[in-house]
Amino acid sequence: MSASAEMPYFIKPSVNLKQEEKKEAYENAALEIKAVLDGETDPILKMVTINCILKTKLPYYYWVGFYLVRDGKLSVGPYQGTLGCLHIEFGTGVCGRAAAEGKTQLVADVHVLAQGKDHIACDPNSSSEIVVPVFDKNKDLIAVFDVDSTLINSFDEVDQQYLETILAEQFEV
C-alpha cells in the first residue's frame, strides 16, 4: 500500500492535551458513550459510536478505528480518518502485536519502529499510536482498537486506562 504524506483537506492535524484536559475529555466522552449506547447490543453500532465520540472529544486523535478478527487475521472495520490497512496479520505491526499478545500497545514514535514488521505505515502523517485489544464477554479477542496521532508522544497511561475501561464496559458484557 502506498501512502501519501499530504494531509487530506478533511482531516485536522492533532493537538495534544495537558493531563488534566485529557482526563476531562475522557470523562465527558465516557459519559456520552454510556448514554448513547445504553441498551445497545450491536457491536458494529457500538464501534462507530465510540469512534465518533472519541474523535470528536479528543483533538489529538488523527485516525481512530477497529480492526476486526476475521479468518485468523485483522481486517479493517469501522473507522474515521484516512484509508486504513485492509488486512493485518497477527504479530505484524502494532495492531498485529496487540492482537497476538492480547495487551495494549503504546508507541511514542512509530517512525523509530522497523517498517513493515513492527509498524505498518498506512498513513505517513501518523506519528504515535495506541492499540487496545477488544474482548467479548467470553474473553475472546474480537478486535483491536487503534488510534493514531500526527504528533509524537500523544498517548500515555491515561489513554490506556480510559480506553481499556470504555471498551471493557461496552464489549465484555
3D structure, described in words:
- It is a single chain.
- With 173 residues, the protein is of the alpha+beta class.
- It has one domain (19-171): 2-Layer Sandwich (Beta-Lactamase).
- Helices cover 34% and strands 23% of the residues.
- The protein has helices spanning 19-37, 43-57, 93-101, 157-171; strands spanning 63-70, 73-80, 87-89, 105-107, 128-135, 141-149.
- A six-stranded antiparallel β-sheet has the order 3-2-1-6-5-4, sandwiched between helices.
- Strand 2 (73-80) and strand 3 (87-89) form a beta hairpin.
- Helix 1 runs antiparallel to helix 2 (43-57).
What is the overall pLDDT average?
A: 91
Oligomer: single chain
Determine the fraction of residues in helical runs and give it as a percent range: 25-40%
Q: In angstroms, what is the radius of gyration?
A: 15 Å
CATH level-four homologous superfamily name: GAF domain
Keywords:
173 residues; Beta-Lactamase; 6-stranded antiparallel beta sheet; 4 helices; 34% helix
List the helices and strands and how they pair.
Blueprint: H1 19-37, H2 43-57, E1 63-70, E2 73-80, E3 87-89, H3 93-101, E4 105-107, E5 128-135, E6 141-149, H4 157-171
Antiparallel strand pairs: 1-2, 1-6, 2-3, 4-5, 5-6
